Amino acid sequence: MRHSVVALVLVAAACRQQPQQITFDGGLTSNQTALIRHGERLSHVLGCTGCHGAHLEGTFFTKDEPQYGPIYASNLSVEVPEYSEAQLDGIIRHGTHPERKTVWAMPSQIFHNLSDPDFRALVAYLRTLKPIGKKLPPPQFSVQDKRDIASGNYKPAVKMIEDFAKKQPVHLGPNYALGRYITSVTCEECHGSDLGGNSTGPVKIPNLIIAGSYTRAEFDRLIRQGIPVGHRKLNPMMSGVATTRFSHLTPHERDAVYAYLKARARLSG
Known about the structure:
CATH architecture of the largest domain: Orthogonal Bundle
Strand order of the largest sheet: 1-2
Number of domains: 2
């Protein structure tokens, strides 16, 4: 009898699965082809192609800013096969590198929020890339870089992760969890760890409370086409992000982001 009770307890424990992780639409597929396709979509949404090139072949990241670097965005088509999944996890989500120890100019502070299923999908896609070109040089630091590092204005990815973890977008419950998740791995990069914006830099980045003034149709036009209300002038970076990254979001994902940002705006008064 005692053994039967123990067996029932074990079965019950096995049935109590961990809460399902939040993912972008398609992240929980068990079909490998669909998983790779999902990973390819994420490479656009997360901005991988924006830094690493249209074919993830790597770019001269500081080409137009000679006072920095030179720093290159890695050629993922030839570097990804060199690393295990654990090492790629370190580089992408934790800001650590198996050879250089630290990672620079990599937005690991937002990718740190990427769920396991979405991370696996992204890596699955990256492993399908056909090699293009050659491996690019590691980061080099100019005099200006060294000054910025010394002053704390330029930080390695590990430190950025620590900073961002101190203040994250407000939790508004399970109904808004997907929208919060998407903003945490996309919008935080420019709008800050709590989406509060930045009014002190050379380019003013608004608090995303501004989304509360948009209708659903207006928000959709902004996030897909980079066209704000009243056709006012928009930061060119946001226009580019809208057309090259957020245009790859599904309607359901856009609905979730809008709902979360509207609820956040209402909470802020």
